[in-house]
Amino acid sequence: MDRRKAIETALERIGHIERLRVLEACAQGPKSAKDLAPTQPAIGRVSYHFRTLLDAKLIKRHSVKQVRGTIQRFYVISAPGLRLLDSLGLDDEL
Question: How far is the C-alpha of 88 from the C-alpha of 94, rounded, in Å?
Fold first, then answer.
């Protein structure tokens, strides 16, 4: 797959402004859905975006922490995710 096609595929997988926000946050350091969700009910929606980026290999699992009977997963940006931000010119803002 050539570079242009790889970028197009990655952008299709991002496909939502919330995923770009998650990707940029993960470039700053380990983040969980709870860190980025504005309210408790929104955690499920944000988790969905984390899973989509994980499936696209744009982020990777960093650590897992048990908190009051639930599991909190933390993610960081992966090398392909960082390359994508770089190709979009967004890594300069980080």
Answer: 12
Domains observed in the chain: 3-93 (1.10.10.10)
Judge contact between 46 and 18, C-beta under 8 A.
yes
Predicted model pTM: 0.80
Cβ–Cβ under 8 Å, residues 83 and 29: no
Give 14 or 35, the one with higher predicted confidence: 35
Reply yes or no on whether the pLDDT at 88 is more than 90: no
Q: Compute the distance between CA of residue 12 and CA of residue 3 in angstroms, rounded to an integer.
A: 14
pLDDT confidence of 14, banded at 50, 70, 90? Answer: confident
